Amino acid sequence: IFAIYYKKEDKSYYIRAFSGKGSDNKILFIKLKKKHKLKLNQKELISAGDTIFQITPVNDENLEIIHLSRKKVLDGIQKKIFNGKKNKIVTLGRSRDCDFSFPKDKSFSRFQTTFEYDEMKKEWSIIDGKEQKSSTNGTWIFGTHSFIIENEMIVEILNSKIKIREIK
Q1: What average pLDDT is seen over the chain?
Q2: Is the whole model's pTM more than 0.85, yes or no?
Q3: Mean pLDDT of the region 89-109
Q4: From start to end of the chain, where are the E strands?
């Protein structure tokens, strides 16, 4: 169902959904925690609240966020593009102060997810919650490719949740 492997180059363990013949890569989910900052190197699917979003870094500095859930329309908002040079921090959540706001949807935390742009590295990162406060239900990333394993990471495989802890 999934594989854990070690890369000598960066001395890190990784987890990925098994991608053998006939496999379904939508069985692995990674839960972001406040202290985990995931670099957005490619298109990602995230679950925030009861909603699915496609997050895509575009042209080194833009971030495209597309609302994909068909079960409910969130205030008519379907897609937004943010420029990292103008918006170094982009927030998604229920608060009207969020850049991508869904004030009527109680499944979102006030600040569900934060995206940060590092101008020197020209890359976006995704973080659960805002500043030092995590969201209530977390931000989940669909495991469609490899993720570096970090201490206290929670993964969901099928209907089982596993917490990964570093042993010294």
Answers
A1: 83
A2: no
A3: 90
A4: 2-7, 12-17, 28-32, 38-40, 44-48, 51-58, 62-67, 79-83, 89-93, 100-101, 113-118, 123-128, 139-142, 147-148, 153-157, 160-164
